[in-house]
Amino acid sequence: MAQGKVEICGVNTAKLPLLKAEEKERLFAQIESGDREAREKYIEGNLRLVLSVIKRFSSSNENVDDLFQIGCIGLIKAIDNFDSTLNVKFSTYAVPMIIGEIRRFLRDNNTIRVSRSLKDTAYKAIYAKENLIKQNMKEPTINEIAAEIGISKEDIVYALDAIQNPMSLYEPIFTDGGDALYVMDQISDKKNKEENWVEHLSLSEAMKRLGEREREIISLRFFEGKTQMEVAEMIGISQAQVSRLEKNALRAMKNYLTA
Q: What are phi and psi of 236, to 5 degrees?
């Protein structure tokens, strides 16, 4: 992917607006009232989030314009599904949805290839995990596995994510806002301070502490972009119950991460 590209899809990225917090709140209130012009301004004011995300995929062979367009789809989905009543920054909510949209695109286009070194790291971690379970009779943490094999936890989660199947180990984990994302997406980007929650590699353990139904609701809401009403119909409960369970899950995860 081209590095330092200024114009993407006809957009001069060097001149993108930067919205202040007060302006974001004002625009979002207008969006919720059906103001299309405010929606366009909000999209444009958050395109920097898309740029920060596509940098994560610089090793892919995809055209940067394509990634940007796909990322914008994720951004728009985030805007359409964001619940402003939750005490969560929009960027914290949006980044994982943008990542998820791009990852689905890459998977569908078979552009992700796993290197030999990544596979070796992943297999070492899996072997170490099994040994630690036998020794301690409990599931080891990422830190314990890292100490056992002498490899950084960032490299371990990246490698494990690369070899995992979407229906098994390749399951989503979540950030401050309850947004679903994969473990690989937890690797920190220190240049983007608004995304600090994405740096927490313990989020998968926070997710394990949720009940099965809460995990399902969080996954459908924030990874697949479903509305609360759609989730309610899918799992056979009321929209009010979905809302309550969702908020309880978000609160529980945040409490675990800040404890």
A: 80, 35
- What letter does residue 177 receive in the DSSP assignment? T
Left, alpha or beta for 234 (phi > 0: left; psi -120 to 50: alpha)? alpha
**pLDDT tens figures, 102-120:** 888 877 665 445 566 777 7
Q: Tokens 């609160």 label which residue? A: 251
Q: CA nearest 77: which of 101, 108, 55?
A: 101
pLDDT digits (tens, 9 = 90+) for 129-176: 877 887 888 878 888 899 999 998 878 877 777 665 432 223 343 333
Longest dimension (CA), the chain: 60
Under 8 Å between Cβ of 24 and 41: no
Complete domains list, the chain, with CATH: 1-113 (1.20.120.1810), 116-163 (1.10.10.10), 171-259 (1.10.10.10)
Token pair recorded at residue 121: 């790291």
192, amino acid identity: N
CA distances from 251 to 226, 245, 247 (A): 20, 10, 6
What stretch of H or E contains 7? Answer: strand 7-8
Q: Which of 157, 231, 164 minimizes the C-alpha distance to 200? A: 157
Amino acid residing at 17? P
Q: What is the pTM assigned to this prediction?
A: 0.44
Residues in the chain, overall count: 259
Chain Cα centroid distance, residue 168: 18
Taking the C-alpha atoms of residue 259 and residue 246, their distance in angstroms, rounded to an integer, is 20
Distance CA 126, CA 129 (A): 5
